[in-house]
Amino acid sequence: MGTVDEERLVRLVARGDRAAFEELYRRTAPWMAVRLRRRCADEQIVAEVMQETYLAVWRAAGAFAGSSVGGTAVGWLWTIAARRLVDAFRRRAHHAEPPAAAAPPDAAPAAEEEALAGTVGGDVGDALRDLAPELRHVLQALVLDGLSVRETAVLLGLPEGTVKTRARRARIAMRKALA
User: Which region ranges are annotated with the description Disordered (predicted)?
Assistant: First the structure.
């Protein structure tokens, strides 16, 4: 495949190219699994979400490839995975106890946060890094992952009111940092 980017791979997957799908999976699955595990400690749920995500990618690649809407293929993949994770949490909560939440982040920055810092640079990146982790996680889910308040609440295991409050506090802190 060479240095074909993820957007091109998705366009090839939309045409039914299995080799492109395998390459897209090879490139994105390790990152996706780490990101999902940071949000859910239950390996069975992570495995189910991974399977559902890539099945959805195979089936819906044409929707991404044919859209004129901005955004990256990796962002599109994560949006699918995050929504599948929320759905899994809802299914489990409906049938039994909710799954265990992921362990709180260690003091060392996670690979995901390092990637975020690399993607969002300058003053905005600095302001994001300076946010308290609980505010940054809410902002990540709402803004970067594109989830609703309700989906963010389910994903992070918080009441919706707490998500709204943290989002407001994060916006205020970001405005102050960027002023």
Answer: 96-115
